[in-house]
């Protein structure tokens, strides 16, 4: 039930103005706004320059009008830039905070010059560290508040009493700061 049958509207804002509220009418898909689906719309407007935010929402009408929106990507055909607006929230009067419209700011790579580099380092770190999370390993977290260890055991039990000593011998540690 993450899709919606409601009418969806968007307003795109850039350094040269905004589009005003526009209904997203014709998707390249026969049924629009279905769960897990990517819909593509053409919105005609004067060139707005660099985009910085959008306002997107729906009218709340129709059965199953709640909508979980992952993200919006706007492709500028003049500059060939992609602008990404992350949402990952419900637009639903009965879910999340009850809002059916969201104001989203741009989060594209041009706003974060080191983003690709950071993503590559994250992937390299995960490749080097993922062995710790394999079946059979015991994870120990040191809690600075209790000055003890919290253990996640291979049998899926958790020892959260905060033992003061390492009772598992050679184990790696992941430090958590509260």
UniProtKB/TrEMBL annotation:
SUPFAM superfamilies: Lipase/lipooxygenase domain (PLAT/LH2 domain). This is LOXH1 protein. Residues 1-105 form the PLAT domain. PANTHER family: OXYGEN-REGULATED PROTEIN 1, PROTEIN CBG12474. Coiled coil: none annotated. Gene3D superfamilies: PLAT/LH2 domain.
């Amino acid at each position: 039930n993450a899709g919606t049958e409601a009418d969806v509207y968007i307003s795109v804002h850039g350094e040269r103005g905004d589009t005003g509220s526009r209904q997203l009418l014709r998707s390249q898909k026969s049924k629009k706004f279905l769960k897990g689906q990517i819909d593509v719309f053409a919105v005609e407007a004067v060139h707005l320059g660099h985009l910085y935010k959008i306002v997107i929402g729906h009218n709340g009408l129709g059965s199953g009008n709640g909508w979980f929106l992952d993200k919006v990507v706007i492709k500028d055909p003049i500059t060939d830039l992609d602008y990404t607006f992350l949402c990952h929230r419900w637009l639903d009067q009965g879910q999340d905070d009850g809002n059916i419209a969201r104001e989203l700011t741009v989060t594209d790579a041009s706003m974060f010059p080191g983003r690709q580099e950071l993503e590559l380092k994250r992937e390299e770190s995960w490749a080097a560290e993922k062995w710790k999370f394999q079946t059979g390993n015991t994870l120990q977290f040191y809690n600075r508040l209790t000055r003890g260890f919290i253990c996640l055991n291979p049998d899926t039990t958790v020892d959260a009493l905060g033992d003061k000593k390492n009772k598992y011998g050679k184990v790696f540690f992941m430090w958590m700061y509260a």
